[in-house]
Amino acid sequence: MLDWNGYRGELMGAIGEIATLNPDLMKGHDTLAASATAAKVLDPKTRELIALAVATTTRCDGCIAVHSEAARKAGATTEEVMEALTVAIALNAGAALVYSARAMEAFRTAK
Questions:
Q1: Which domain CATH number covers 59?
Q2: What are phi and psi of 21, to 5 degrees?
Q3: What domain count does the chain have?
Q4: pLDDT, block means (10 residues), the chain with 111 residues
C-alpha cells in the first residue's frame, strides 16, 4: 500500500510544477473543481463521499489521496466511506456485466 500522506505531499509538489509550467491549465482545472465544491444542494461530506467513490472507480490514486483527506475533514465516518465504496464496487460490477453483454454480442456477430 501507499504512504498516502507522503504521496499527497509529493503529488501537490508535482502539481505545483505543472501550475508553474502551464498556469492556464491549472486555472481551468481550478475553475472546474470550484464549481463542483460550491455549496448548492449537497453538503460537503456527501460531495466528498461521491468524489471518493468516483476516484475509486476511475482508479485515480491522486484523487483518492486528496478526497479521502477531504472526506475525513468534512466529518465522514469509516462506515460512510465504506458504504460509498460499496456503491462504487457494485457499479463497477454492473458495468462489467453490461460490457460482458456487449462483448458476447460482439463475439456472436464476429465474422
A1: 1.20.1290.10
A2: -75, -35
A3: 1
A4: 92 96 96 85 95 96 96 98 97 94 96 93
